[in-house]
Amino acid sequence: MIDIHCHILPGLDDGPSTMDKAVAMALAAVSSGTTRIVATPHFKNGVFEVSPEMVKASVAVFTGVLEENKIALEVLPGAEIRISPDTCSHLDQGELLPLGASRYYLFELPDIFIKDGIITVLRQLRQREVIPVIAHPERNRTIQRHPEMIPEFIFENALLQITGKSMTGENGKHSFKIARDMVKEGLAHFVASDGHSIRRRPPCLDDVVKVVEKIGGRKAVRAIFEENPAKIVADGQV
Ligand SMILES: [Fe+2]
Questions:
Q1: What local confidence, expressed as pLDDT, does residue 133 receive?
Q2: I need a surface site. Which of 39, 67, 98, 138 has the fewest CB within 10 A?
Q3: Which helix (H) or strand (E) holds 150?
Q4: Ligand 1 center to residue 123 CA distance, Å?
Q5: Distance (Å, rounded) from C-alpha 192 to C-alpha 38?
Q6: Cα separation, 128 vs 197, whole angstroms
Q7: pLDDT confidence of residue 23
Q8: Alpha helices in 17-128 (DSSP H)
């Protein structure tokens, strides 16, 4: 499996604070069947100051440590970017990172937002040939009040990523319902761990696969956990 959203790099954001903790997360990911992770520290969220150079340097160091420890996990650079009216100016100035070496960028919505403002940014991104992946819409407070917005974002060229723990109900009943409905209706392109630590959201997807299989069958599992993420890594068309 490929996990496209995980805070696994040490010391950059609210992910693991040390290399040992990052290695423990890598071991947990591998034992749950993950072979590749896109490392997505928070960007532009007003709390952490992370740059593309910092992520690339950290991925290089972490990859070296994984190789030394013979842990078969490939880690790619990425970012979870808080979307804002300034997103395209940050992009134009080279301050943002895509998922791997692709045209896909992972965006987090503000908890409270006005839909038209977000749609304006999505259209600006489209003009730049960026394909936005919206992180965990099912956990967003505005979307929980207005789930009818979800297909509108897809209409605007966005892809949607659910957090694994929303599928199992561990993120509360609202995100549980929306996540399940999204899989049922074919509106979920990815499920990722959004892992932060071994204790707080470990980077494991094996239990979640079973839930998705019950709702959407083997076809949904293949698309959500394998084919769609592989297309991101290869910069193909999801
Ligand atoms: Fe995240």
A1: 98
A2: 67
A3: helix 150-155
A4: 23
A5: 10
A6: 34
A7: 98
A8: 19-31, 52-68, 87-92, 115-127
Cα 203 to Cα 196: distance, rounded to the nearest angstrom:
7
CB atoms within 10 A of CB 20: 11
Q: Which residues surround ligand 1, an ion (CB under 5 A)?
A: 80, 194
3-state secondary structure of 75: strand
pLDDT block averages, 10 residues each, the chain of length 238: 98 97 98 98 92 98 98 98 97 97 98 97 97 98 97 97 97 97 98 95 95 97 97 96
pLDDT given for residue 200 in this prediction: 83
**Is-contact 72 38, C-beta < 8 A?**
no
pLDDT at 46: 87
Ligand 1 center from residue 217 Cα (angstroms): 26
Give the three-class secondary structure for 135. Answer: strand
Q: What is the CA(108)–ligand 1 centre distance, in A? A: 8
Calpha distance 4→142 (Å, rounded): 24
Domain ranges of the chain: 2-233
If you measure from the C-alpha of residue 42 to the centroid of ligand 1, how many angstroms do you get, rounded to a whole number? 7
State the amino acid at position 97 in one-letter form.
Answer: L
Direct distance between the N- and C-terminal alpha carbons of the chain, in angstroms, rounded to an integer: 16
Q: What is this structure's pTM?
A: 0.97
- The alpha carbon of 72 and the centre of ligand 1 are apart by a number of angstroms equal to 23
Sign of CA dihedral 31, 33, 36, 39: negative
CATH of the domain spanning 2-233: 3.20.20.140
CA of 136 to the centre of ligand 1 (A): 8
